Amino acid sequence: MLKLSIRQAVVAAAALVxxxxxxxxxxxxxxxxxxxxxxxxxxxxxxxxxxxxxPGNAGSAGGSTGxxxxxxxxxxxxxxxxxxxxxxxxxxxxxxxxxxAAWCRVTSNTPNPADPAxxxxxxxxxxxxxxxxxxxxxxxxxxxxxxxxxxxxxPPDPQQLARRAIxxxxxxxxxxxxxxxxxxxxxxxxxxxxxxxxxxxxxxxPNTWGPITRTATLDGxxxxxxxxxxxxxxxxxxxxxxxxxxxxxxxxxxQYNNPSPTCSHRYQQQGKYxxxxxxxxxxxxxxxxxxxxxxxxxxxHANLTIAELQVLVTSYG
Length: 317
Known about the structure:
This protein is mostly beta strands. It has helices spanning 7-21, 158-169, and strands spanning 32-39, 45-53, 64-73, 80-82, 85-87, 90-91, 94-97, 102-106, 125-132, 138-148, 175-179, 191-192, 196-202, 212-218, 221-235, 241-244, 264-266, 271-287, 290-316. The model is unreliable at 1-14 and 16-50 (pLDDT under 50).
């Protein structure tokens, strides 16, 4: 076996192998041989064979997960409670009235002013009120009418409206792009120990990268939210994490072991690696006199196979 200091042999052989990644490869679990000509340190041409040991396919499973956190300013939202349990302040049955322990709305059929329901009042309105059931949601079987003084319309929780706007965005984790490809996209693909793996967000769209803006409205109140990915955290499955931007799709220089100008990684051992790319979304919202930020993370998983290249001298010439 020639030592790796015979750089021309290694580079020539490895380049041929990486070029093979772009076309259908032999089935994994088998070694791949490539005939090359090598030149040693004494300028003798030798016949070499590059043997690529492939550890086998990584699993084809992939998927995404998500989590979020938030902060806001401009005053806290109104909180409604019933017997120590938080209940929604606004429902289709009206606005929560603490003194009635019910959601109340002005009745659609207002009684005549002489009706006993007014109880002698000349201001206010006749309300239809609905009490909660044991699970703190409106019970339409427990409804009654009563006179109540009119109250200013209470606005909805702006952060809840912000989250409605986010739901309308249909956000997703990025589509993982790598060179060599993941086994999820090409089951026979593999990279090489010590060679640069390029990483990027493949074909980014507004709902995988941003910016994307949506508005949610309730009872005449509106909140607008805008979401953008600020960075991607790559977990390479070998204990290494990288923080990158959108990354750079692979070009012709990638097959000659040139590093990506924005995001790449080199493995030190052959093996099957599960990688993940976590998109860090920053979502800013404003409305109803408040504003805030919601940080949302979405993660996509994929698999890489890393093979080891060995250059063997078969004859001198």
